[in-house]
Amino acid sequence: MRTEQLEYACSKFGTPLYIFDLDILRVQTERIREKLGEGIGLCYAMKANPFLTAEMAEYVDRIEVCSMGEFRICRDLKIPPEKLFISGVLKKKKDLMEILEYCGGRCAYTVESVRQFQYLLEWSDRKAQRLRLYPRLTSGNQFGMDEETIQNIIRIVGISPYLEVEGIHFFSGTQKKNVDKHRKELKELDGFFDKLHRELQFDVRNLEYGPGTAVPYFRGKEPETFTDDGLHALGDAIRDMKWTGQVTIELGRALAALCGYYLTEIRDVKQNGETGYCIVDGGSHQLNYDGQIKGMYEPYIKILPEGMPGKEKNWTVCGSLCTVNDVLCRGARLSGVKTGKVLVFERAGAYSCMEGMALFLSHELPGIVSYDDKNGWKQLRSQMETYRLNMPE
To answer: In 10 A of CB 49, how many CB atoms?
Structure first.
């Protein structure tokens, strides 16, 4: 995004502010799809940034929905049920029944547990409607089920007139920086699918695979998996599998991160001993980079207005919270630092704007705007007070 656009957004919408550049979002999605290669589908994990759901529904094959709130967002946005992939470690029976009444068999459902499977079986028998299931294979944590449990579910589905195991869902973690980890996982999945074929005469047709592709949040730290070559290598690893079914790659961070900017104004400047501090009107409750610990890594930052005179020096950027942990970065090389200037934190389009401690100290929620060359600026949310959420009704 051009500097003059960022400066305009500051003056019109104020700070703290999130900006999502929808042109960057589209280009990044097209890049990932192209580098993975033909025949590989894309699923957007909307938990990365639900404000991008409507656009991503046009760019990808599926939207992963992990909560009732996310489902209601999709429903209100009129996202077709055929686009939804209903996931989530906890599916309350009441909530799942509401989703089933709305979507029926038009979307696919992950199965995280035997209990979730029982809910889906009960509904399909009662309604005499076909449901497409994706049992989730655990990677050794609280998510999904082990191989034996999935085999038992496949056996039960085999005698159900309405249920179908359309595929397997697998996701083992995020911010993977090495393609070798993907190759290892895909080899293990190959072995499991072969086992299902040999022991149950069951052929897996589809794989929903979350590779957990890392994003280059910090200067000098470009993960292999995010590069064009890394994405191409992931596509090749999928094509090298002995299993030959359809693969859909599930991504959130990798699709959305580069489109986002977080703008926060410098409200105070001081020197404590050897360290220069900028105190901004935002903070770590509104901005989170995965892997950042007390500002030890340097994100991509610039200062507005640009080109102002001043000696470049190291600055520690801190937010407005009453905690020593509220450090956005240390040792940022900036010039012309003074109150009234605005710091722009780039690559903040995924999770960064969702994972902070939004209610801590009852600060306001930042405004949110989007931009694209065709439609210009759109205000998605005004600044919102939170203090009423922290007091009795």
So the answer is: 28
C-alpha 326/C-alpha 383 separation (Å) is: 21
Name the residue among 315, 306, 238, 230 with its Cα closest to residue 277. Answer: 315
Tens-digit pLDDT profile for residues 153-188:
999 999 999 999 999 999 988 888 999 999 999 999
Question: By the 8 A CB rule, do 142 and 113 touch?
Answer: no
Model pTM score: 0.94
> Taking the CB of residue 30, how many other CB atoms lie within 10 A of it?
11
Q: Do residues 269 and 276 make contact, with C-beta atoms less than 8 angstroms apart?
A: yes
Query: 266-307, pLDDT tens digit by residue?
Result: 999 999 998 999 999 999 889 988 877 766 888 999 999 876
Q: Is there a cis peptide before residue 16, judged by omega within 30 degrees of 0?
A: yes
Which residues lie closer than 8 Å to 140 by C-beta, 6 or more apart? 172
Task: List the end-to-end C-alpha distance of the chain, in Å, as a whole number.
Answer: 42
Residue type, 125: D
Which tokens hold the place of 374? 């065709």
- Annotate 164-224 with DSSP letters as a single string: EE-EEEEE--S-B--HHHHHHHHHHHHHHHHHHHHHH-----EEEEE--B----BTT---G
Residue 6 near residue 344 (C-beta atoms within 8 A): yes
* 150 dihedral zone (left: phi>0; alpha: psi -120 to 50; beta): alpha
* Cα gap 381→368, rounded to integer Å: 5
Give the C-alpha separation, 392 to 382, whole Å.
24
